[in-house]
Amino acid sequence: MELVTITALDFEGCYRAVSTRDSRFDGQFFTAVRTTGIYCRPSCPAITPKRANVSFLPTAAAAQQAGYRACRRCLPDAAPGSPLWNVRADLAARAMRLIGDGVIERGGVPGLAATLGYSQRQLTRVLTTELGAGPLALARAHRAHTARLLIQTTEMPMSDIAFAAGFASIRQFNDTVREVFAVSPTTMRTELRRSPRADVVAPGTPGLLTLRLPYREPLDTGWLTWFLSAHAVAGTEQWEDGVYTRSLRTPHGHATVRLSFQPGHVRAELALRDMRDLAPTVARVRRLLDLDADPLGIDAALGIDATTGADGRGGHGGGRVFGSDDRSGDSATDSGTAGIAHGIAGHGFTPGIRVPGCLDGSELLLCTMIGQQISVRAAGTHVARLVDALGEPIEGPVPRLFPTAEAVAEHGAEVLTGPARRVAAIVAAARALADGELVLHSGRTADDLRSDLLALDGVGPWTADYVTMRSLADPDILLDTDLVVRQGAALAGIDLGDTTRWAPWRSYLSMHLWKTALEHRGALVREPSPQEAKTHD
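RESULT FIELD:
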């Protein structure tokens, strides 16, 4: 089998991860074993293959392109996604985010190329060189994963699954499942009843899927709990008894998601109007919760160790298996990270903090503009009024969808209250979104998006940075103009004047400082760390 050479992967680093079955690297690369024709995740419990028999690839699609089939023991397609698609800002990374959102299924390779502003030929060349597979092969890998989820979580007929997963024909669906998983679709469904899969809870009722969304531990659930519950908008979101529920628009209709944090995974109940929206919905939920982050690597780069909550001495931090073409280099100095670690650890730092993303970029922008210079609670009241007046009614635990940009542009001035200039700015932003003058999608570069946002009336640096950070899941935006972040920095004794010191993880530093200030105010009750909980047992 001929493999595309991926120079960005470090063989020794990858082999060490495989030898120790290090689950932190699941999804960051894949192990292809020549003697068996199988590809696995790094933590696969099988016997470690000999050096001479393995190659390492950055995507499952690259392994499938080379003729390897997925290991039926470790299910490499069910691993958390690679954090590189957020850390890297190059064409390949932006294309991967859009492919995960189903752009090729809806518009083909021409649609993907046009969205990114490149020719099809140039896009294919870059993806093949960087990722070992072209856009069609990458999309095929996503379709195979979606097909497996539908086979194992629903009783849908196989013909319906084929088209819901994005396959052009039933024959293509059958051939792909056999090639990727080495079993027929019918056999795969039968096997589930004998051995439940790690990412599947059980076949659900019609129209409802229940999945386990994996993540790399640790996960600061206390931070995400506060963030989701504090920003929940009545009518379209709710937080109740540890479950976050919300509605969202999807490419072919709408969906309702119910999320709860469980040990090692997030339980996700998805009610989809159209099963073709499964993959985009899962991708958006993962971005919302930042589930593909590498928390140990990030904490280590900031000088904080997950096993001690201190300055990284005596514990294990994140490792690197990628070369210098990514943005996750050793950019933090020892002196700089030691200062961060000492300051944050002294104020109850909990490892595994995440940067919350968003489910809809347009909604994020409008909500952020409404909430400028007022409290989170007051902003929720104003947004809830907008949802109640202009949101589309739906059936389910949350009764409405967030209003479309068109609805806000047409009727927002009649509903929104506050300074006339701010209301006019919000309506103008909605009009720009509705007319296509402003485009918000995960394939944009941070610099271009920030520039477009700053061109809007009523949008300043803080709003532009905050929306860019969350809509693109950008890990490297320091919210140094945010009052709460600055208060957290003062409490932790950190000077925000040197804005480049903590690259490329400045967004995570912002969240640490934000949380520190909120805990100091008593607005956020810190959950005990695993070490503290163990001490008190």
